[in-house]
Amino acid sequence: MKDFVSEKQDGITPLKTEDKAAELDRLREQEIREQMVLGPSGQFLAWRPKITKKFRDRIIAGTSALGIQGIDTDTSLRITSEKNRFTDEYTAEDLEKTGEQLNRSRQKFRAGRALGRLLRALSSRRIYTGNIITTALVHGGKIVKVDSDYLKMDKDELARREADGLVTNLTVDEVVLMTPSADCPSVTMFAPDVNAIGLAHCGWKGLRAGIVSKLIKTICDEYGANISELQVSVSPSAGELEYEVSEDVYNEFVSQDPSFAKAFTETTLQAEEGKKKFLFNLNKIIELEVLKAGIKPETFESSRLSSIGSEFFASQRRQGDSRSTNVSLAGLLK
Q: Known Gene3D superfamilies for this protein (predicted)?
């Protein structure tokens, strides 16, 4: 940790070396005890945001601690069942398949089973995995509204629908929102005054495109939500001391808003000659965005857990292309 700068430079957040790391470890251990959901055999199944305790009868939300292979890249895994979504049951047709078709059916089945476990970890209510829906990520700022007409679209069209965020006021009896990630945070927004919910994948490119402010605007414009009532939760992500980026990324954000410098810490770790490297706190960017938009600090929460620095979550940086993928779910119970 001694390679990190410890004096404030040009608005960059100072890092107090061992003290900072020790305090972060303490906060992470506390969060694991309070917010990680254990399965029957003692393994971690999911991270659950605090807002689900406050609104336990109204929403489900959380992020898997059991990755699913291919769910972010394989179109057929995004939409699989007769209801145009996921399935955790074999059909008679599946049992008759051979070769590659059989392997694909097995992969779909495994995805459905994993999602079923996640749903059971997040809620005692029986929720059909076939109601889960997601989009093809484009790492931008597009948000789609999921209503009854949206769900009537052809399954192939749904599977290829490009967006990084979803909003709905339908209950889990009709739809559960899902977004995949493997270091990027997911943002869940719940509007209790109008009973609407949103979920977005927030990679650095999406954050640069303003996806957080667009998610807020969509919920407020489409459903009439009061911004001061919005409950916002940010999932585990790459980690504030683990995610290293180039100076170009730093410059892109700071040129948009100088206050974004608070999300970066300069480091000399692995820096090329003449080039700076920065540790990038993705969740801090989201915090700055939502508070600037008018959301109250007491209705905002952000995980401190790191996908890169722990074995709980899948991580592109830690595991490479062979890794599985985390998924975040959000839905309205009533």
A: CNF1/YfiH-like putative cysteine hydrolases
